Amino acid sequence: MAQEQSSITTTTTTVPDLNSPPFSRLFVLCGKQVTVGALEKFFSPYGTVEQCHIVYDQSTGQSKGIGFVKFQKTSQAARALKEADGKHIEPELKPIKVEIASSTIESKPLDCLRLKVKCAAELDADAVKAEFGKISAVNSVQLVPDKKSPGNNVAYLTFESFLDAALAFETAKPEHKAKFAKMKPRKVSLESVQPQEARSFFRPVTRRRSSTLLPPTKLTVLCSSTLTQNQIWRLFDIIPGLMNCSISHDGGSISSATVTYNNTQSAKYAREKLHKFEYPIGERIVVRDGSE
C-alpha cells in the first residue's frame, strides 16, 4: 500500500504505548477545519491530554476531519467520551463523533464495561458488589474459583457505564489486580426454545429498511492482514448506516474486506474520510467503490 505522511503533534516528548492505560485513546470525527490546537484545547478540560493527532491527506494537504486524543487516564477518556460526543469544536458547526480508538489488539466496544479482579474466597458476590459499588454502579458480579491461587476467587464485574468501569479500575486495591475483561457472548440453549418458537428462532436475521433509503452500497477495503473483521467493523461503524462487514484473508500481507451501508451518502462519506487512513499505525487502508 502507498505510504503517506500525517501531521502529528504531541504535547509531551513521546507516548511509548498508545494503549496504556487501556481504553485511554479516543477516535474523533471532528471536521476538516479543526486543528490540533483546537482539538487539544477542547479536550483538555476532561483530563491530561498526552497526545493529539490530526490526519491529513498528503496529496491535497487537507485535513480528513479525523483526530485522535490520548489521555493520561482511562477515566479521563471515559468522561470525555460521555460528555463530548455530540458537541462541536470551533469553527466547525457539525457535532463531533467520539469513540474509543480501536487498537491492534482485538476488542469489542462493550469490553470497556467489564473488569476481572481477584478477591478472597470468603467474599460472596454481594460483598464484592458492595465494595466496588461505593465508587461505581455495578450491574452484576460473577464469582469463579481462582485456579492459579487456591483459596481465592476471581470476580467478573459488569458496570453500568464505561466511566463506572474506568473509575473502579483505577481505584481498585493492588491486591485486586484489576484489568478489563472481554465480554462473553450470551449463550442460547436450544432446549429452552419452544416448538412454536423454533421457526422464528432459526429465521435469518435481517434489518428492516425504510422505503426512503437508497439500495445498500458496498465498498471494498484493502487492509493489513493483521486486522480482524471486528476491528474493521468498529472503524466503519463510526459512520451511520453500516449494515454488514466481512473480511477475507488469503494468507498474504493484505486482506480484502467488503463493507455495506444502507445509503450511498454514508458510503461516499466513508470512502472520503477513511481512504488511505492509517490503520493500524504505520499502514494505510485503501477504500474503493465495490464496483471498482
Largest sheet: 5 strands, antiparallel
CATH superfamily of the largest domain: RRM (RNA recognition motif) domain
Beta-strand percent range: 25-35%
Please tally the helical runs, counting DSSP H or I stretches of 4 or more residues. Answer: 7
Account of the 3D structure:
This protein folds into three domains: 25-100, RRM (RNA recognition motif) domain (Alpha-Beta Plaits, 2-Layer Sandwich); 114-180, Alpha-Beta Plaits (2-Layer Sandwich), CATH 3.30.70.330; 217-289, Alpha-Beta Plaits, CATH 3.30.70. A hairpin with a 6-residue loop joins strand 7 and strand 8 (152-159). The strands form three sheets. The protein has a five-stranded antiparallel beta sheet. Strands 7-8-6-9 form a four-stranded antiparallel beta sheet. With 292 residues, it is of the alpha+beta class. It contains seven helices and 13 strands. The chain is globular, with a radius of gyration of 22 Å. The relative contact order is 0.13.
Short description:
This protein folds into three domains: 25-100, RRM (RNA recognition motif) domain (Alpha-Beta Plaits), CATH 3.30.70; 114-180, Alpha-Beta Plaits (2-Layer Sandwich); 217-289, Alpha-Beta Plaits, CATH 3.30.70.330. The chain is 22% helix and 28% strand.
Q: How are the SSEs placed, and which strands pair?
A:
Elements: E1 8-10, E2 25-29, H1 36-43, E3 49-56, E4 63-71, H2 74-84, E5 97-100, E6 114-120, H3 125-133, E7 138-145, E8 152-159, H4 162-171, E9 179-180, H5 195-201, E10 217-224, H6 229-236, E11 242-248, E12 254-261, H7 264-274, E13 286-289
Antiparallel strand pairs: 1-3, 2-4, 2-5, 3-4, 6-8, 6-9, 7-8, 10-12, 10-13, 11-12
Helix pairs in contact: 2-4
